Amino acid sequence: MLRNKLHLTALLFLVCVPLACGGGETPAGEASEEAPAATPGVAPDLSQAGTVSGKISFQGEQPQMARIRMGAEPACEEKHDGPVYSQEVVVNENGTLKNAFVWVKEGLEQYSFDAPTQAVSLDQDGCVYLPHVFGVQTNQDISIRNGDDATHNIHPLPEQNREFNISQASGQEMARSFPRPEIMIPVKCNIHPWMKAYIGVVPHPYFAVTREDGSFELKDLPPGEYTIEVWHEKYGTQEQAITVAPEESQEIEFSFEG
Ligand SMILES: [Cu+2]
73 CA distance to ligand 1 centroid (A)? Predict the structure, then answer.
């Protein structure tokens, strides 16, 4: 009789404990819209890290860029010394492409990275976005500033993140961030239709934007196999699979044709 009671107690214990534990759990599939789960993984070991660098070359005929007429906004027009042109395609003097976004698309999934505490700047200066193309880590602040004597309206058009559309008076500044990776988020101004920028949101620090010499550098990359992608506003994307050996400095080149 005593033995049976003990069995019953044990049985009740086994049934009750899992029920009690389950009471406070959030049902699966109810992840918050604004706070995706943190990327699993650890920080990479950088003791044998390498570097991938290179350039984005351009072949063929350089397209003529449209001239931007901003006479309706004299405060902006007078900030420019000469005519202003669209930055859709900027070919550098050395035959390379400016404003190409280069990033590690695959190969870092096992790692996690904290967002930098320092913000990235996006200025509205002379009714032009500066910079025209830039990268930011997920959840890293973008400091958006209106340096013009005019009102702007900052309006990113993401597909993986939440859209916003905010008027900004002269001199105002605000910070925003995007929680999800997205290549690329177009940004427009509802007041000045020529204003365009593109933001690459990356879950790690391995990205770069080509400037006046068309070069890029991805430093402190742990040894491994990677897919490197380059994105350009007009010419689309290309990718290359590479292997980075311990402490290796590797050069790669991409080429777009006009
Ligand atoms: Cu504007």
Answer: 9
